[in-house]
Amino acid sequence: MEKLLATRLQEKGTNTIRVELLGLSHLFQFPFKDHQKFIPNFHSLLITNGVAKAEESINNRITSIQPRCLVALEGNRLLASVILKPSNKRGTCWSISLPKVFKEPIFNSLREVKFSLMKKSLDLVPRAQTNWLVKYPTDCIDELSIARELGFQPHKIINIWSFKSNNHEPFKKSNSLHTIDNSENNIFTWERINKSNARSLWKLEMAGESVHLREIIDRQLLDIINLSNDYTGLLFCNNEGFSSVIAGLIKQDFPDEITTLKFLRDIIWDNRLNNGLTQVLNKLSLSKNKLFIETNTNDEQINKLFNKLGLIKQSERLLLGKTILKRNRLKSKVLNKTTIESMLQKLTPSNSPQPSPSVSSR
Fold it and tell me: Do 189 and 81 have their domain in common?
């Protein structure tokens, strides 16, 4: 059957890879029988693609910040897809999901299919100031090599942790943590993210990232507030009337991460985390949803604590970014150089130099 299909496709000259925005016409090519779990996502992406098209048709000067889905086809065979999602409210940074493969190609290699999808993704959002992020498992060699080929640079390796059991209720909407540490007179409280405490959480995230990565993500306070759910918040430590934020959790907003939380703390290790964080993780372990927490691989102290508390390390992922910031800096340097040279030319005297006074003996 496959050989017959290949012959017909070859006769029609349809052996090239086509990458298109997901549409209603692709419903007939999608293998629903073998990918039942993708059906709800497929339907929601059809809607967001339609909304994005409508927004951009009304005003072609703006780029919609609705998530997008691209599909790769070989003839009438739908092979794979990727999802694009903005990482902030202004759409200055977008993330690309790991390519989802539905069928093996006949005429092309699977790597060529993935490359076409990722390459087209970079052209789909026509903004001069768009940065890009991908976060792929370290064993996805093809995807990582394609990302490097397309100009992505590695920034950090991330540990993905999970809990042993998830069978109860998540955090309530009010503060659900109030613990007293009698040995140090510390009172730990957990607060949901709101407008008044979002700046503290924003500062924690900025402290834990490199300057280059902060510029790529381009996070602002409103973005932090939007990354709130029933499991996110800030851990406060109160001691004799003085309150300080020692850790936090925000939702990760990558396309293929639904219940992943990012752990945040200050650069300097705080021993109070040993007691306060234990209470937070105990609460999270009672969630009825499958939760994951990500930490920086280089954060040895927090990784040891997670391991000691019984969390399970599921995988490692590599975060890569692509930006135009470097190109803009180079242009700025050239402009600055030209300006300085023009200034020096203006300072050059037009008359012949006068002889300097001499103090030598006559």
Answer: no
- Can you tell me the distance from the alpha carbon of 358 to that of 257, in angstroms, rounded to the nearest whole number? 78
Name the pLDDT band for 335 (thresholds 50, 70, 90): very low
Residue 92 near residue 131 (C-beta atoms within 8 A): yes
Residues 6+ apart with CB under 8 A from 345: none
Query: Which DSSP string do the residues of 224-265 spell out, in sequence order?
Result: HHHT--TT-EEEEEEETTEEEEEEEEEE---TT-SSEEEEE-
Q: In this predicted model, what pLDDT tens digit does every residue of 33-53 receive, in sequence order? A: 666 566 667 677 777 777 777
- What is the C-alpha separation between 317 and 159, in angstroms, rounded? 7
Confidence tier at 168 by pLDDT (50, 70, 90): very low
Question: Is 151 a member of any domain?
Answer: no
- Closest Cα partner for 147 from 104, 117, 109, 105? 117
The answer to whether residue 276 is domain-embedded is yes
Closest of 155, 131, 159 to residue 263, by C-alpha: 159
Per DSSP, the three-state class of 69 is strand
Residue from 71, 90, 82, 135 nearest 322 by CA? 135
Q: What is the mean pLDDT of the chain?
A: 80
Distance CA 356, CA 341 (A): 27
| Domain extent for 75 | 2-129
Residue 168 lies in a domain: yes
Q: 94 with 218, same domain? A: no
Q: What pLDDT does 129 receive?
A: 64
Q: With 60 as the cut, is the pLDDT of residue 174 above it?
A: no
- Whether residue 118 is found in the same domain as residue 44: yes
How high is the pLDDT of residue 333?
Answer: 45
Q: Which has more pLDDT, 168 or 308?
A: 308
In a domain? residue 104: yes
Count of CB atoms situated within 10 Å of the CB of 70: 24
CATH number, domain with residue 281 = 3.40.630
pTM: 0.79
3-state helix, strand, coil in the chain (%, to 5): 35, 25, 35
